[in-house]
Fold this sequence. Notes:
The chain has helices at residues 2-27, 32-48, 52-59, 61-64, 67-85, 89-115. By secondary structure, the protein is mostly helical. It has one domain. It is globular and about 50 Å long.
Amino acid sequence: xxxxxxxxxxxxxxxxxxxxxxxxxxxxxxxxxxxxxxxxxxxxxxxxxxxxxxxxxxxxxxxxxxxxxxxxxxxxxxxxxxxxxxxxxxxxxxxxxxxxxxxxxxxxxxxxxxxxxxxxx
Length: 121
């Protein structure tokens, strides 16, 4: 039963974040690149205010998978690295914290490109 509740929380929060992004695409003149960048910045800002951490703990993957979760990961990495290494941590922290996710995305993209031969439309 707990698994179903966790999945429902993740679905609700992740769906709300994605619905917000879709509303911005449909209702504003913002480009998708600006919306995606805004989502990352929003995740950093909410993390800096201490609001995104509790949401991510409560919603699990529903808050970790969208781009706001990437912003939270970057902010968390900076915070931890600055505490450990000082000012240099502001540069190394985001790279270290997000390296696994970025590497996985690149590897999955390469695998998809090898399996499905892209062509021009």
